Task: inverse folding
């Protein structure tokens, strides 16, 4: 992805989020220079990879296969393993109309996916094979706003604003905005996007960046090179 495209997506996403009365935290608006100048204060922010995350999954067509994310807070895997402390995470996502977030599951993370506003959120679901791999013949069970719902293999569930689904680590899922763009909330156990995504098809989690202009704000995938 071109850095200019990423900068434009950030501005567009911020306006979309604000249209629902939600404002990102102050660190979202720091420039790269401000982050560098405050480096001594932000170890936990960097460790938790909190901040902007825009991906085309390495495929070069963000509008068809992509996702906007912003990690608002994130706990520690060590706390999750101990079962005490900050064991949770929270994100905002934007799924554009017909923009696919590809079929995947998580190894550890359980998550509530919430339609916070906009159009309809569509989620395609499969269960897992006994070894956890993708199984096109496997259905399963999810909770929709606390109510048990059984799904058949490949069933597409839809969620209006205010509705949600709870996905457990073995639930394979892909999602997109139906009829328009959707603001999505994600409340989960500790999030680790570097190791906890298992994609059905060989695909990258983060975008390769063409630095055609300076970044407005850093992506979480920039932290290692810009803030080391």
Result:
């Amino acid at each position: 992805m071109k850095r200019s495209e990423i900068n434009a997506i950030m501005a567009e996403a911020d306006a979309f989020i604000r249209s629902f009365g939600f404002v990102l935290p102050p660190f979202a608006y720091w420039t790269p220079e401000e982050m560098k100048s405050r480096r001594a204060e932000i170890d936990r922010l960097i460790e938790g990879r909190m901040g902007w995350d825009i991906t085309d999954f390495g495929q070069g067509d963000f509008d068809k296969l992509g996702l906007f994310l912003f990690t608002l807070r994130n706990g520690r895997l060590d706390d999750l393993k101990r079962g005490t402390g900050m064991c949770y995470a929270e994100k905002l996502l934007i799924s554009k109309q017909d923009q696919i977030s590809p079929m995947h599951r998580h190894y550890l993370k359980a998550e509530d996916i919430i339609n916070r506003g906009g159009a309809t959120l569509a989620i395609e679901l499969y269960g897992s094979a006994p070894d956890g791999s993708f199984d096109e013949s496997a259905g399963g069970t999810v909770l929709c706003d606390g109510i048990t719902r059984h799904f058949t293999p490949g069933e597409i569930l839809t969620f209006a604003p205010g509705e949600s689904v709870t996905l457990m680590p073995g639930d394979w899922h892909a999602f997109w905005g139906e009829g328009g763009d959707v603001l999505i909330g994600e409340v989960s156990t500790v999030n680790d996007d570097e190791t906890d995504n298992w994609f059905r098809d060989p695909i990258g989690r983060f975008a390769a960046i063409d630095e055609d202009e300076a970044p407005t704000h850093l992506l979480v995938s920039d932290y290692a090179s810009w803030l080391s």
